[in-house]
Amino acid sequence: MIIVTARDGIDDRIDGLDLGADDYLVKPFEIRELLARHPRGARREGSGSPALLTNGKLHLDPATREAGFLGETSLLTAREFAVLLRC
């Protein structure tokens, strides 16, 4: 799991990692940085496919660029997916 947040304090980072996150990424960030970090976690899990990104209500699937919110899913363009990741 990667935490993506605007909270950039060292205590915030340590707390996030202590809660079980594999990585902590501070916004704003370049999509290339997220994509560079993400495959490492997927390989470590041994699943072979990238894990879903979620905040509890919204989920994003980096492998398919599918977004889901409250039971509804949509296939996003590359640009839409990149914009949503920045939110």
Model description:
It is a single chain. The protein is of the alpha+beta class and 87 residues long. 38% of the residues lie in helices and 25% in strands. The protein has helices at 10-18, 31-45, 78-86; strands spanning 2-5, 23-26, 53-54, 58-61, 66-69, 72-75. A four-stranded antiparallel beta sheet has the order 3-4-5-6, with no helix packed on it. Strands 1-2 form a two-stranded parallel ribbon. The two termini are 17 Å apart. Mean pLDDT is 80; it is low at 40-45.
Write a concise synopsis of the structure shown.
The chain has three helices and six strands; from the N terminus they run βαβαββββα. The chain has 87 residues and is an alpha+beta fold.
